[in-house]
Design goal:
By secondary structure, the protein is mainly α. It folds into two domains: 1-131; 134-285, no CATH class. Helices cover 74% and strands 1% of the residues. The protein has a two-stranded antiparallel sheet. A hairpin with a 2-residue loop joins strand 1 (70-71) and strand 2 (74-75). Mean pLDDT is 79; it is low at 37-42.
């Protein structure tokens, strides 16, 4: 993959836009001010404005992903592109949540998310794919990959959301005088959003595993082989299945739900991103 000066400038523009959004939110929410009362009145207006500006780096990031992943009829999907896509989807979901009144406080999370996205958007430059994926000429493979990455991305977001809920729960027992966490929605609302994300991610993960089993010949060009990726993929699926059954039948919530979410995510991380990082970065394959 050849990187032109125009491509570098595009990456740089997205990096700077994300950084600007993160800085503006940080300055108006996290930074302490002696004129706190005045800041409290003006911050919501500024945050609403910055929330709309966030569409610019998101659109530019989407364009970068399209350009770096699509190579003619083939797909270039290395570890840099994979992480970049996951972070972009994370930013997109939290940005969209800001348009719903019950999730209005989620806008404050755009500061750290924008900071992470600023780094993620340039990862394809740091970890470029050595070669396009095999069998990408098959339409079945492209459909399988799109569903798989959507599942991995959503369940990654669920894990991040669960970690945030842990911090919020701890904040309830140890309140601070000045904390952005006070602007977040109630814990029960965040928990409902968590399980919505898990349900959608679980359905997509189920379709990913089924398509890999039933259409292995069409998707991968060979019969199904049992690898560590397959093993951890099924362990992750089973973990999320138990969590959703426990939620439905026994009302699991709070810390037990968070623990199961994080365990399922770790299994998924070992199944996909872990293997790609070892093969592409460490083993240079």
């Amino acid at each position: 993959m050849t990187i032109s000066m125009t491509d570098i400038l595009t990456y740089l523009a997205a990096f700077l836009l994300y950084s600007l959004v993160g800085w503006l939110i940080w300055r108006n929410i996290y930074k302490k001010s002696p004129l706190q009362s005045q800041q409290t009145e003006s911050s919501p207006v500024v945050i609403q404005y910055v929330h709309h500006v966030m569409i610019l780096p998101l659109m530019l990031h989407a364009f970068i992903l399209y350009q770096s992943v699509m190579i003619g009829t083939e797909l270039n999907f290395g570890v840099g592109n994979a992480i970049s896509l996951i972070v972009w989807l994370t930013a997109l979901i939290y940005w969209l949540s800001g348009f719903f009144s019950r999730y209005q406080g989620m806008q404050t999370l755009l500061a750290p998310i924008a900071g992470v996205a600023a780094i993620a958007v340039i990862l394809p430059l740091i970890f470029p794919s050595l070669k396009p994926l095999d069998n990408t000429g098959f339409p079945a493979f492209k459909a399988h990959l799109i569903v798989a990455m959507s599942a991995y991305s959503l369940l990654t977001i669920a894990a991040l959301h669960a970690a945030l809920m842990t911090v919020v729960e701890n904040q309830l027992h140890h309140p601070a005088a000045h904390s952005f966490l006070a602007n977040l929605p109630p814990l029960l609302v965040m928990e409902k959003l968590l399980f919505t994300i898990i349900w959608v991610g679980f359905i997509l993960l189920t379709l990913t595993l089924l398509s890999g089993i039933v259409f292995s010949e069409e998707v991968f060009g060979q019969p199904l082989t049992f690898t560590h990726k397959t093993l951890f993929g099924f362990i992750s699926w089973g973990t999320f299945a138990v969590l959703l059954i426990g939620r439905q039948c026994y009302g699991w919530r709070g810390r037990i739900a968070i623990r199961w979410t994080l365990v399922g995510f770790i299994m998924l991380l070992l199944a996909y991103v872990g293997s790609k990082f070892v093969l592409e970065v460490i083993l240079n394959r």
